[in-house]
Write a sequence for this structure.
């Protein structure tokens, strides 16, 4: 990249927004876009809301599958103000939500005030944006960012540990890199155990049931260069697959890419 | 220690027992002693059993307080065979249990078959035995082991994050060592995040509300030598204080020191 190139002021503004400013904009109806690249350095989260009677088993699902479902915050029934974001309201402060009934997507909405009640339990789970920034800072390529695409996501044939009505296969993201970069990326992402941690697989996609890297189940395919191998991380979409169980009458999630932006800084989540 | 000294065959046998052998002995009524030093290298766990209606909030208490309450295994309601110990039964395979009603200890019993029903949820939480062995291997003194005492435990004035009916102060263990040993011990125990992880405090006990190191709330006082500082770790007894809430009609725990011995190896719990 040419360091003297003019900086796109829009991108700079997106990156430099404070989480509280973004949440205000969303609540005022002034932001309905995805949150990728917004509020650089602050932790973004997957949202799942479920009726209270499913909360124990969903929390247990997350505890049993910490790599795809790292728990950032869980709120008491009926509470919508998370501990990890001052003054935030989970009913209004995400740019877009999806509402599922018995596992089927019914609506995409701008807020969930009408669906939330005193028995609703909210879960905020880590996402990979935090470790992508750490990889980039370390000079490891993040191809989806380089190519301006959504990360490639695949449904594997690896079953998650189930809990009550919640069971699904592991979903992974893939980033291509050289073997030595894969080793360094393993070290770096190990520090970020609350945003998926170390890779779950390196190399042959068939070993985890992925038939064609060019055909991701979600997101976009990216270029894999000569000498690169695919490196796979557990993905937060796993939690969405689990939560949208046919047995659950009502589940609310963020819309893909439209995450909750917390006040936590990436470095708050590191273990070392 | 003189390497040529005769080895006490009883101690060797205790250390070399396999967890499955120990559990069989307990179930057959042939072992009612504490489990400290038994089955060296295998993970021991705190046990808490609660009625199903309290399970979500207790699990959330553990998630919110991962240093004192690291989750090793949580079982479905009515299930007593944990994933982390092949063929084990939590109703019979601990040497001694305590039964609490509304926070008051009612009985100490050899098994809990009569108290367990299809709505009972069992929690297994990490304990400090795993990291003590790692410290000893690294040449860091563990004074309570050297002096053949129970580790010193103190109730601090640091409040845990509460969840529903569960709230209590943080309980810590203390091990005296030199400042440079404290730095090394911090590195070593960081690897063991599922058995309390890095220390929660180093130095002045008054800062966390401890008035007199010679008067621990549980366990025994140990010698603090010239040039040593106290190093404090979160303690699993915190989970017992929380579980024995006045609001909970029935809670079952292990008796102090009489832990559940799992098939997990200490190294299975490390993050690096």
């Amino acid at each position: 990249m040419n360091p003297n190139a003019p900086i796109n002021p829009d991108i700079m503004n997106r990156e430099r927004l404070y989480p509280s400013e973004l949440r205000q904009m969303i609540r005022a109806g002034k932001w309905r876009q995805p949150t990728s690249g917004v509020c650089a350095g602050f932790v973004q989260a997957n949202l799942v809301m479920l009726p209270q009677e499913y909360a124990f088993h969903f929390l247990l699902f997350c505890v049993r599958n910490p790599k795809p479902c790292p728990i950032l915050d869980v709120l008491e029934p009926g509470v919508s103000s998370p501990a990890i974001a001052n003054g935030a309201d989970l009913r209004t402060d995400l740019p877009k939500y999806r509402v599922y009934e018995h596992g089927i997507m019914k609506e995409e909405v701008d807020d969930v005030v009408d669906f939330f009640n005193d028995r609703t339990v909210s879960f905020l789970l880590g996402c990979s944006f935090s470790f992508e920034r750490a990889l980039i800072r370390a000079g490891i390529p993040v191809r989806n960012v380089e190519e301006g695409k959504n990360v490639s996501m695949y449904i594997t044939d690896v079953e998650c540990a189930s809990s009550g009505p919640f069971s699904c296969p592991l979903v992974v993201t893939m980033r291509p890199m050289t073997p030595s970069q894969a080793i360094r990326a393993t070290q770096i992402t190990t520090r970020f155990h609350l945003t998926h941690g170390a890779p779950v697989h390196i190399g042959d996609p068939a070993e985890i049931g992925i038939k064609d890297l060019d055909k991701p189940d979600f997101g976009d395919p990216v270029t894999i260069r000569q000498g690169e191998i695919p490196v796979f991380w557990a993905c937060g979409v796993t939690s969405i697959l689990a939560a949208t169980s046919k047995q659950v009458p009502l589940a609310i999630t963020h819309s893909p890419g439209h995450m909750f932006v917390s006040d936590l800084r990436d470095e708050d989540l590191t273990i070392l």
